[in-house]
Task: structure prediction
Amino acid sequence: MPVPLAGPGQGLPFPQNLYPSELSNAPQDASSNRLALAPGDTFVIPAGDWLLGMGLYCVLQFLDPVTNAWVIVPGSPWARQQFISSDGFTQRIANLTGCVVSASVINPGTGYVQATTTITAIGAGFSGAVPTLLPIVGGALNISGGTLVANGAGYGVPPIVMIPPPPPAQVNANGVGGIPATAFAVIASGTVSSISITNPGAGYPVAPVAVIVPSPFDPNLSVGITNATVAFTLASSGLIMGAVVTNNGSPLANGSLASVTLSIGGAGSSGSLTANVLQTIVSGTLSSAGTGYGTTGVGFVTYGGAPLAGTITNSPEFNGIAFEPRPANLAVTAASVSLAAPATIYDGGLFESAPSISALGPTVGGVFTIAGLTAVMGSRNDIIIIQPGP
Result:
């Protein structure tokens, strides 16, 4: 295929109208390759090839055809630069700091019916629209794992377990669709010894028929492999097994992120969900000055900040693989001078729950008492770069 001319003096295309104002009913637009996104703002990437600079607090999302919801890729907080080929509809940049992005199942409850179960977000800190969440009742794989019909033979590395997704809302008996399940195989002496669930999924009308496929990098492919087979069962009738965020709503006010609650309505009982809010550190002050830090001040490191684990074992949240937080970078100068000293925030980090904060050095003489920092979690404005590709 033809490629653009390149060489000395040939640069990238000049910024273009992202939504051409010459089109009928299109908004007025000026050429630029830099955009500001306030908390709660999203920007659908126009069709074409784009070099993206994601800023510090924005994430890249795709419109999941299975759940029909916008999904944050788990490692997105770390991917500050992307090259995207967009169709103009299914990929977007979003500043969701301060917004509800997911929900963890704390108690699946009993006796729920899909048609009557509702989730309502309640919080005094919302600046506008509240988020909307769709509950998924039942239809999850038995988390004890799949039943091996045949163990197979000749595997040099574990094969791949491929599980089809639930039917979409249009053809699903529950009318809302579901959440895809995932699992992996464990081998011993060349045979599959067990199948472990990493996400039981939800919304399956019947148990899916999975396929176990040899890894394309298995050194025994040329020798010959006998494929294993597995059968799954469903074991979650009447239980809330997941929730899909269909609209992130407006951001919560800084410092009030923990005020949001999710209320479950319907025929069942005992179910409970906790909202996970995308957040960053917006300010911090010393709660204890510590000693021994000298005149250079003290730096702080964060850890944690993942979505709540919930109680559904073998789920992405429970196993800590649903979202990868990005630690913050902050410091307080002249730490021993005043407890009122504010923190300088170089990067507030990106989290789905409030992180823990610990002091770093440097110290004088190696003898010190640890300083403490009280942080306010919230949302931040951000700037993105969207440069036309070659």
Observations:
- The chain has a mean pLDDT of 88.
- The two ends are 14 Å apart (CA to CA).
